[in-house]
Give the backbone structure.
Amino acid sequence: MSTQWRLMLEIQSSSKANTDSLAAALITDCEIEFNEDSFSIVITEEKAKDLRAMWNTRVRGLIAVDSLVHMIDDLAGNTN
């Protein structure tokens, strides 16, 4: 019998444009389900350590893009 580990993450940023940028960062890594002002991803793995690794990869990418988007917003004078 095989156990599957599953994690769902719903993501929403300070604006629709920023949320779309975060989704774009993950578009080649996983399936994305778009909602009205957010999106969600689901990661499923057979081993907990693999799920952790996939989670870390996705979250690090999101953190990097979020930091970049906020820096651009600050430079442009947008403080959403």
Summary: The CA atoms of residues 10 and 40 lie 4 Å apart. The radius of gyration is 14 Å. The mean pLDDT is 92.
